[in-house]
């Protein structure tokens, strides 16, 4: 799933490559992905892309006062094309959800490129909104403070009010915006905290260490990601991970074997030596089978 660093990098990429171009049209191949109807998608035809930004994990393409907002969800991605076929993609065929055609700013003979929004797999959760104000998107309206904008003091207040496991608190977008499954694993590993620790019970030193780890992990990932082409962002993300998706491999800090806890539709990874005092956490799938 694209998280704060990748979405920030995609926004920077679009500012460099799409800003100033004129929208020719948007082709919808997955009608369920489009969540709004007023204004209609054809309202952006002929308008100019003026910028791009990010709200948590939402990508915002600014088009002459309108906002084409995308949530890529778990399996979505943006593929930039220097040239696009003129024939629209067939609805319901393949991974393409939406294709945006962009002409050069001067409408001359330059290449008419653009991008495809795609989604792999059978669970179609990618969402596209065309709105006048990003706060019209329900998910944006519910966002908590951005993970890279919140102060230590406000972060501490947020944690003290949450009696849930810290892994879930970090990934709850209404509490803190931008962090998903992968970077929460990385942050907790850097902070040397168990993913099952209760947020409200963290000491002042633990809270401070967690905040510093969050800032460090996300800032480093943004620095690695911004400037990359959209096509290379996924591999760049994987290459920088210490524990997430590295089950069975040695921890780069202590050499212990990275372990995994699996849930119904996702999993987390951690290092026992660095995070849990050498203890292995119970795998929730196995725990259910034993009962």
TrEMBL record:
Classification of source organism: Bacteria, Bacillati, Actinomycetota, Actinomycetes, Jatrophihabitantales
Reaction catalysed by this enzyme: Hydrolysis of DNA containing ring-opened 7-methylguanine residues, releasing 2,6-diamino-4-hydroxy-5-(N-methyl)formamidopyrimidine
Keyword terms of this UniProt record: DNA damage, DNA repair, DNA-binding, Glycosidase, Hydrolase, Lyase, Metal-binding, Multifunctional enzyme, Zinc, Zinc-finger
Domain FPG-type span(s) in chain numbering: 242-276
Zinc as UniProt keyword: yes
CDD domains in UniProt: BaFpgNei_N_1 (cd08973)
UniProt source species: Jatrophihabitans telluris
InterPro entries reported in the protein's UniProt record: FPG_cat, FPG_N, H2TH_FPG, Ribosomal_uS13-like_H2TH, Znf_DNA_glyclase/AP_lyase, Znf_FPG/IleRS
Cofactor(s) this protein cannot do without: Zn(2+)
Residue ranges of domain Formamidopyrimidine-DNA glycosylase catalytic in the record: 2-121
Superkingdom of this protein's organism: Bacteria
Protein name: DNA-(apurinic or apyrimidinic site) lyase
Keyword DNA repair: yes
Gene3D superfamilies: 1.10.8.50, MutM-like, N-terminal
């Amino acid at each position: 799933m694209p998280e704060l660093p990748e979405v920030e990098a995609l926004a920077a990429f679009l500012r460099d490559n799409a800003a100033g171009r004129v929208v020719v049209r948007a082709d919808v191949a997955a009608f369920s992905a489009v969540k709004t109807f007023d204004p209609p998608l054809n309202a952006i035809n002929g308008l100019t892309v003026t910028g791009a930004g990010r709200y948590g994990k939402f990508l915002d393409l600014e088009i002459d006062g309108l906002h084409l907002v995308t949530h890529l969800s778990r399996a979505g991605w943006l593929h930039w094309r220097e040239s696009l076929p003129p024939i629209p993609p067939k609805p319901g065929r393949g991974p393409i959800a939406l294709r945006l055609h962009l002409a050069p700013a001067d409408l001359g003979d330059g290449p008419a490129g653009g991008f495809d929004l795609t989604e792999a797999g059978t669970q179609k959760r990618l969402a596209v909104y065309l709105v006048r104000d990003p706060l019209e998107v329900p998910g944006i309206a519910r966002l908590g403070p951005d993970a890279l904008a919140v102060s230590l003091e406000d972060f501490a207040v947020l944690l003290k009010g949450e009696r849930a496991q810290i892994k879930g608190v970090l990934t709850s977008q209404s509490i803190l915006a931008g962090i998903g499954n992968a970077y929460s694993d990385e942050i907790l590993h850097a902070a040397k905290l168990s993913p099952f620790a209760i947020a409200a019970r963290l000491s002042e030193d633990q809270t401070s260490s967690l905040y510093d780890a969050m800032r460090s992990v996300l800032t480093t990932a943004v620095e690695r990601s911004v400037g990359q082409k959209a096509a290379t962002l996924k591999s760049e993300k994987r290459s920088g991970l210490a524990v997430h998706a590295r089950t069975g491999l040695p921890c780069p800090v202590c050499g212990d074997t990275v372990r995994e806890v699996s849930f119904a539709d996702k999993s987390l990874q951690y290092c026992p030596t660095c995070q849990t005092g050498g203890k292995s956490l119970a795998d929730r799938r196995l725990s259910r089978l034993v009962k």
